[in-house]
Amino acid sequence: MTRLPRLALALAVCLPAALPAGAAAVTPSYPSITKVAPLKLGVGDTLTVRGTGFRSGRGRNTVVFKREGGRAVFVKAGRATRTRISVTIPPKMLSALGQKSGRPVATRFRLRILAGRFGRRFTTTKRSPVIGPAPVASKVNANDCDGDLVPNARDTDDDNDLLSDTLEATLKTDPCKRDTDGDGMTDGWEQESALDYNGRALPSPTRRPYPNALDPKDGKIDSDGDGLTNVLEYAAWAVYGQNRLPLSYSGGNPASTGKEKVPAGLAWQDRDGNGFLSDNERDADADGIPNQDEGGVGPLPVKLNVVGFFADEYIGLKDVRDIVDVVPLYGPLDYVKKVQATDWLEADTDGDTVRDDADDQDGDGVANVPELRQELAAAPNDKTQRPLNPCEPSLDARLCIVGDDDIDNDGLANRDDGDDDGDGLSDATERQYGLNPFKADTDGDGVTDGYEYQSAVDLNSAAVPYPGKRPYPNPLDSKDADQDFDGDGLTLTDEYRAWRLTGSPTPLSYSDGSLYTGGKGAPVAAGDRRDTDRSGFLSDDERDVDADGLTNWDEAHGRMTPGWWEKTFTAFVPSNAGPGIDQIKESVYPGRTFAATSFVDSDSDGDTIPDGADDEDHDGFTNAFEVARPDNWETTYASLPDRLNGSNPRARVNPFNPCKPFYSSTCHRYAPFDYYQDNEDWASPVRQDGP
User: Fold this and answer.
1) Rounded to whole angstroms, how far apart are CA atoms 447 and 470?
2) Where are the beta strands (DSSP E) in 235-363?
3) DSSP secondary structure, 344-359, as one string
4) Rounded to an integer, what distance in angstroms lies between the CA atom of residue 12 and that of residue 9?
5) I need a labelling partner for 211 at 20 to 30 A (CA). Which of 28, 145, 369, 581 fits?
6) Is the peptide bond before 38 cis (omega within 30 degrees of 0)?
7) 236 and 284 in contact (C-beta within 8 Å)?
8) Contact at 8 Å (CB) between 81 and 99?
9) Within a 10 A sphere around the Cβ of 651, how many other Cβ atoms?
């Protein structure tokens, strides 16, 4: 879509159509709650909500229940007028209740209404009901426990829990109470699930290894190991099983409807590939999306290999305020947090009359299930979070606001730019390797994706590496920035900084995949002090990227860093200079601290003198001169009594010590007491500045 039609569409949405004379535009009001009754009730009871802005009719309003620290539960309301809503608390609320000592307890829920649009706010604590696992609305008639107008004396199942009174007497469950242990699950469902678990052999409800009508703590247990807890399976049966046997969802059978062959067209739901649909792979609300992929199921065991694309846990929502009445902020991978989860027991979660499978959570014009199936079928390096990504498959989609953006500020809108983040890799390549095309540095290690990828190609001799592996510079490895892949003494970050200083050219001017980036070039003269390995050529560490007269390695990690001198000359080491002669310990200068220079800044201290020609310790010798201490300095330096006839009095240089090679005018006048050891060569026979 071009910009002009997009602008026209925006104007068409924003500008009202012409109205008949005298007519006034009607703006739908936000639904608002003024009163809730009763304030104490349980699952199965009816809640009455009064307020304004509701939609008249049955099933046209949705009540959102939200407890502190819990997920939002969307419940379709029953009868309603514009000022009054009736809603029955459904069994699926059981999984949202708080837990204490392993059993569900009465929990306060704040409410918000969806009636064409969401209410602006949740109810206050004072107007928020407390909901428990069992009904509390009416007192039980002792002569007719289930209220079916059949006296208990003539009713074989007084509480209508699918267990005969005779069997309940045997099991020691309450024949006048559908849920003896008060965990929200009826005695009949728990007993029938126990039979399923026990191979139809009659279990005793006083034991524990199965769904148990006398155990108030077994709701959170997944007895049959299918990824759904007992209370979740009960909720699915209670909502869609019509209180009938056999159980449509059983806590004792991971494939409650049998291990039959997967129906034609549903093979994609068999995620574990075992040939049948387990309860977690089925679709309780018949909305075309498997149970495990929708909100309310909770995190499933890792062994099930489940992603749960439309579940809260995958989307990462922490508060219902993140998912209702928001303008999505789609940025690099953060757009996921703004997409609304679907409910596994509600076929039309958002109440827009479009079933969840045909709905479009990310607003990209492609329905949920087609995008879900495309994501499942995609190769590992092609996972783009399609069901939640409004910019996939097109940056021109209705809710993809980054299509108009220019992330890399190159003058091209993202939809017209083949490299949106300007990292040197095309968007297609980034998607191919699982990188973020909207983020120049996917792994956040300070080195751009394109640089790491090209360095990997250099290291791998032009063979294309896969960024999911590790043995090279890797745009998916956040811990490799301090590694030195080509062994030249410069880390990945060092060479990246050097490349940036040279203008970030292509091909790379500095690569951490090549010792001689761009080739060896012309040979250097024999004896060139930069050529430390005597190869006759300058490797990346021996070059001088900032042209200040000091090599890259010396300034980054070597002789223009105080630490190098401290580690090299602060211990007595046997010398090969002759019998009884040891390398002389040199203590760190006890006066002021001297700073290292930067290898990507030719004038690190800003005094207009290039670092090589500068004099860090102000002793009259340049840094370039003092970094080059000769290898034979011990035998040629004239200082100790037995070496007064040495041939090179300037052999013991140190760019961070004004007392070496001579006592300069900035050297300390008084040696700190007991600082130098007796056999340490710290005194100089000469006092002068410079050569």
Assistant:
1) 16
2) none
3) TT-TTTT-SSS-TTTS
4) 5
5) 145
6) yes
7) yes
8) no
9) 21
Using CB atoms within 10 Å of the CB of residue 508, give its burial: 0 to 12 exposed, 13 to 18 middle, 19+ buried.
buried
pLDDT tens by residue, 193-250: 999 998 888 777 767 778 899 999 999 999 999 999 999 999 999 999 988 999 999 9
What's at 288, amino acid-wise? G
Distance CA 362, CA 400 (A): 9
- The token duo for 572 is 């007595």
| Alpha carbon separation from 663 to 87, 617, 648, 654 (Å, rounded) | 92, 12, 16, 12
Report which of 66, 82, 126 is spatially closest to residue 324, judged by C-alpha positions. 66
Nearest Cα to Cα of residue 563 among 534, 599, 602, 593: 593
On the question of a cis peptide bond just before residue 661, with omega within 30 degrees of 0, the verdict is yes
**C-alpha to C-alpha distance for 32 and 627, rounded to whole angstroms:** 77
For residues 296 and 290, give the distance between their C-alpha atoms in angstroms, rounded to a whole number. 12
Query: Any idea which residue has 């996917």 for tokens?
Result: 442
**687: β partners:** 663
> Under 8 Å CB-to-CB from 322, ≥6 apart: which residues?
337, 338
Question: The tokens of 634 are what?
Answer: 């011990």
Cα separations in angstroms, 335 against 327, 356, 393: 11, 20, 14
Task: Compute the distance between CA of residue 149 and CA of residue 210 in angstroms, rounded to an integer.
Answer: 34
Looking from the CA of 617 toward its CB, the CA atoms found within 13 Å total 33
> What's the sign of the alpha-carbon dihedral 258, 268, 347, 45?
positive
553 sits in which H/E element? helix 552-556
| pLDDT tens digit sequence for 656-675 | 999 999 999 999 988 888 88
Q: Is 505 helix (H, G, I), strand (E, B) or coil?
A: coil
Structure-token pair, residue 156: 């074989």
Write the pLDDT tens digit of every residue in 401-422.
777 788 899 999 888 899 999 9
Decide if 544 contacts 550 (C-beta within 8 A): yes
| CA nearest to 85, candidates 35, 143, 160, 18 | 35
Using DSSP's 3-state secondary structure scheme, residue 668 falls into coil
* Separation between Cα atoms, residue 654 and residue 570, nearest integer Å: 13
- Global pTM? 0.63
- Range from 271-285, 387-401, 613-627 carrying the lowest mean pLDDT: 387-401
What letter does residue 80 receive in the DSSP assignment? B
> Is 517 exposed, middle or buried, given 0-12, 13-18 or 19+ CB atoms closer than 10 A?
buried
What is the Cα–Cα distance from 224 to 304, expressed in whole angstroms? Answer: 13
- How far out from the chain centre does Cα 352 lie? 30
Number of Cβ within 10 Å of residue 463's Cβ equals 8
Q: How far apart are CA 509 and CA 619, in angstroms?
A: 36
pLDDT (average), residues 262-279: 93
Q: How close are the terminal C-alpha atoms of the chain, in Å?
A: 74
Give the closest residue to 662 by CA, choosing from 688, 644, 624, 643.
688
Contacts of 268 (CB under 8 A, 6+ apart): 373, 376, 377
- In the predicted model, is pLDDT for residue 23 greater than 50? no
pLDDT in tens, 109-145: 999 999 988 898 999 999 999 999 988 866 667 788 8
The residue count for the chain: 691
Residue 214: both structure tokens together: 């006398």
